[in-house]
Design goal:
Elements lengths: L13 H13 L7 H14 L3 E5 L2 H11 L7 E5 L8 H5 L3 E5 L10 H7 L4 E7 L8 H11 L2 E5 L7 E2 L2 E2 L6 E5 L12 E5 L2 H10 L24 H12 L1 H18 L7 E2 L6 E2 L6 E3 L7 H9 L6 E2 L14 H9 L1 H6 L3 E3 L8 H17 L1
Parallel strand pairs: 2-3, 2-4, 4-5, 5-8
Antiparallel strand pairs: 1-9, 6-7, 6-11, 8-9, 10-12, 12-14, 13-14
Helix pairs in contact: 1-8, 2-8, 3-7, 5-6, 9-13
The structure holds pyridoxal-5'-phosphate.
The site of pyridoxal-5'-phosphate (PLP) has 14 residues, from helix 3.
């Protein structure tokens, strides 16, 4: 039996095991927060920002970002149509309306031109997503945001370790959010982080995430109804070990991408992730846009699964999903977002886990070439 090739997977070393073992043994009582504080400090330092808040997920980080920016009912927030639904769901949590904008053909990220066309007097923010480790054209996005006075939130869930003009992914907006879900480059099993340089946003987030308590409150003096969004010390210990190894993890991701690029060199009708000169792509998921003659991503996913290779579909446009069916916002997006509707049905994420070996990548490439030759 050939070994199954998984689509994602973490890199866990003695360091992770030692920190988590120490946390489960000692991070209680007055030490309960030690690993959270160390993880947050190391994460903030790596990104060159003042504040980092460890959270249970990126979804909660986006929820708090919107709340801290004062976004609520009657407001509109622009989000790319092709992304994981977690980028958009928090817009609904706060009672605002998601407006789904198209992506760029090369970066697969939010298009500034599309954003411009979606802005209305009710637009309060845009959520830019660093899709699969790639980066949108932040200069153009900032120009649109400045012109209309709207806030930029960066969903860097898929881009830990990526860079845009030398700046770390997650630092390109007023707030940046990360996911440490088990599939992500840097993982804590489940988990997330919010980073910001803005003191007011930081203070607001600390209150909102702790049931409306002021930092340091010991008298259960809840000043408002808030949320309970915390990361456990065991997760933080795992995260600390991972952020200490971030450059190693990114180097491995980039090596895996280079193996694919080489192995698929002869496949001129497949397009892989792009990396413009001013970007360092951390290639969370190596992604292939397939030729239309293959008849869509589902057939390709099945073909590879039958040969022991797990892949994932490129995100279908959010505006095409039942979750948003019938909303006026989704109906308009379906008419408008040509690139999402062209790429979405024809692209897949290839196995990209940190445990992959070159021979695995070559096997995937061979099967993919076989599929192309047979169609
Ligand atoms: C994974 C992911 C999230 C959500 O992260 P959770 O930690 O699962 O909440 C948000 N946005 C994007 C783009 C993601 O890929």
């Amino acid at each position: 039996m050939m070994k199954r090739i998984h689509v994602s997977g973490p890199s866990i070393t003695e360091r992770e095991i030692a920190y988590v073992t120490d946390a489960v043994s000692h991070a209680w009582l007055s030490n309960a927060n030690v690993y959270n504080e160390r993880f947050e400090r190391a994460f903030a330092d790596y990104h060159g920002v003042r504040h980092a808040v460890s959270l249970p997920s990126c979804t909660s980080a986006l929820h708090l970002s919107l709340l801290a920016l004062g976004i609520g009912p009657g407001d509109e927030v622009i989000v790319p149509d092709c992304t994981w639904i977690a980028s958009a769901a928090p817009i609904s949590y706060v009672g605002a309306t998601p407006v789904f904008a198209d992506i760029e053909r090369d970066t697969w990220c939010l298009s500034a031109e599309a954003v411009e066309a979606c802005v209305t007097p009710r637009t309060r923010a845009l959520i830019a997503v660093d899709l699969y480790g790639g980066m949108p054209d932040y200069e153009a996005l900032h120009a649109v945001a400045r012109r209309h006075g709207i806030a930029v939130i960066e969903d860097a869930a898929e881009a830990a370790g990526s860079q845009y003009r030398g700046r770390a992914a997650g630092t390109l907006g007023a707030v940046g959010t990360f996911s440490f879900h088990g599939s992500k480059t840097l993982t804590t099993g489940e988990g997330g982080m919010l980073i910001t340089d803005d003191d007011a946003i930081y203070r607001r987030v600390l209150v909102l995430r702790d049931h409306g308590r002021q930092p340091g409150d010991t008298l259960f003096d809840n000043r408002e109804v808030g949320y309970k969004y915390k990361m456990s010390s065991l997760q933080a210990a795992l995260g600390l070990a991972q952020i200490e190894r971030i450059e190693e993890l990114v180097a491995r991701k980039r090596e895996i991408f280079a193996w694919y690029r080489e192995a698929l060199d002869g496949c001129s009708d497949i397009t892989l992730n792009s990396e413009p000169p001013h970007v360092r792509n951390s290639y969370w998921m190596v992604t292939a846009v397939l030729p239309e003659r293959l008849g869509g991503k589902v057939a390709a996913i099945r073909h590879l699964a039958e040969r022991g290779i797990d892949t994932r579909p490129f995100f279908s446009p959010l505006s095409s999903l039942q979750a948003y069916a019938g909303s006026a916002s989704a109906l308009q997006a379906r008419e408008r977002n040509r690139v999402c509707y062209e790429i979405g049905p024809h692209a897949i994420n290839l196995p990209s886990g940190l445990q992959l070996e070159r021979a695995d990548v070559e096997r995937v490439a061979r099967e993919l070439e076989g599929l192309l030759a047979s169609a």
